[in-house]
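Help! Submission page says 'invalid entity' but I think these are all valid:
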Amino acid sequence: MMKPPAMLELEGVHAVYGKKIRALKGVSLEVRAGEVVALIGNNGAGKTTIMKTVAGLLRPEKGKVKFQGRDLPGLPPDQIMRMGLSLVPEGRRIFPRLTVMENLEMGAYSRREKDLSREYDHVFHLFPVLGKRRGQFGGTLSGGEQQMLAMGRALMAAPKLLMLDEPSMGLAPVVVDKIFEIIELINKEGVTVFLVEQNAKRALRAASRAYVLETGEIVAASDTATLLKDPAVQKAYLGLH
Amino acid sequence: MTKFLNNKWTPWVLLALALGFPFVAGALEAQYLVRVGGVIGLFMLLGLGLNFTLGYAGLFDLGFIAFYAVGAYTTAIAMRSGIPAPVALVLSVLVCLLVRGLLGLTILRLRGDYLAVVTMGFGEIARLTINNLDALTNGPKGIQVAPWRPLNFLVADPNAQYYLMIVAAVAVGALASRRIEDSRVGRAWVAIREDEIAARLSGIPVRQYKLLAFTLSAAFAGVAGGLFALWEQFVTPESFIFWESILVVSIVVLGGMGSIAGVLVGALVLVGFPPIMQWKLSAEWINYRYLFFGLILVLVTLFRPQGILPSSRREAELTS
């Protein structure tokens, strides 16, 4: 079987905060078209830093970041988005004093089309609850609904690659189930997914391949079935002995 | 109260009342208030302008009066060179936009307190430059401006003429603000104010949009400054001191940041209060006018931190 083309490639990426704090020490990974890839690791391992670097919020100190073969570092986030890469940030970060509709409108900001009714319909089809709340301020939604709004906002740009930073953070288990169901659905519709999770069990179940990040370095990379059986991974991330 | 405010006819009724006022002022022995009304209107324009920077984009600016000065001096210098007044006013707007845009390009990397300090510095630099650039501005001696009375056919009193032009400018400015506020651009400004990172990740070109809000502010200052120069027929650096910048910030904050009605009320209260006291009460009271000014500020911040007439979004921000 032929490998699908690489959508996102990182090669020897280093990132520093200020002058001293080395957050990433030569990270290499790739996400291929159509995949769901997970990146797991503990607090402070550098997962969010990878996301920020890819989305254009942070400039890598050195190393290559490529999306569909094009170099990303140096491009502003709005341009990167326009290429088809959306990030649902950690902590959701919806706009609390904009309505649900306006939040979604902002997500489509990089698009030139006037008529976005298909995109709205699509989002409301995936998240019917948002359709019921379209006139409400984002800040009045529950945590789960806010996560859905953040995902809906990212989908308004019709991304080819959807990156999710801790989508399960602070949510009740039932809601987490729901979110992961929808991630699967989005992937089936042809969107490549790259997600970061502390909830390793969950992430490994949803993804086909995963990377394990420890203090800025990739320490394991494999298909998820193998990782789930790896005793070191079990001990460190799955709470098994 | 809210019913009255939300009625779509309310602004038009208020505008009609404001425009009719100078024609009955003589009968009410309130000609003085026509002049006061004109000054209030100029500060309404400045408030509406600063509202783009402070209210919509959430950027602090403590040197806004510099653009009032640039507007006034542009008109004065243009008139001195024999350029007709309407063209001079247009020039004022263009020069203000240009200077503001260039300033924005250099300082908008800063935010919060740092931006406030730098804009304050710019305000002082502008005033000192005007004070010392004798060749162009005639320094502290100021510039005389030839009289311009375009509304002679309507009313003889020059104060009433300028009052009417200023009220018209305020109405146009308020309407334009409303249109922009309700547009995609206006909502993007709210998004940037609420969460800049999320705005960038949503694909909003944050830097350009901040610059846009910052620059548009100056158009209002240009009109206000130009009208001020034509009305007073005289400009000196003394009119553009730091205190005036603070006054404009107070107008926006007190009235309600991001709220057009709030800014108008803020100007009415803060600028109108001292001269009306002077007019109605004995001369001794005028010595206490800043005491009352301070009292108003303290009371409003204590009891209505969101401003007198906040926008619905700001209200939500401060009550939740």
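Support: the input was valid. A stray whitespace character was the problem, and the output above is from the cleaned input. The two ends of chain B are 23 Å apart (CA to CA).
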